[in-house]
Amino acid sequence: MEHTNEYITNRFYEALDMLVADGIYNSYYHFAEENDLDRSSLNRTKKEPGRRKLHLFWISPLILHHGLDAKWLFGGEGYAYPKGIKKAKRVLQY
Q1: Is 41 helix (H, G, I), strand (E, B) or coil?
Q2: Which of 8, 45, 74, 83 has its CA 20 to 30 A from that of 55?
Q3: pTM, to two decimals
Q4: How many CA atoms lie within 13 A of 35 on its CB side?
Q5: 5-75: what fold?
Q6: What is the longest distance spanned by two Cα atoms in the chain?
């Protein structure tokens, strides 16, 4: 279980890739646009996860709107989704 910033950043992008694959978002740009995030910072952090810092507020839509497990995102423990949830979905409207 890795808790360093780089591992958390990699899990963030793994989760974001799942949301894109599930059709929740069309792209990282779409995620950034819908959640009022800076798209260029999102792209730079993906390219350089060891050098760039992931902003914590980027993670909140994954947990609050899509039901991803914070223990998995921050600690690498368990599964991306709690038991019983198999696919990403919007839990809250925004």
Answers
A1: helix
A2: 83
A3: 0.83
A4: 27
A5: 434 Repressor (Amino-terminal Domain) (1.10.260)
A6: 36
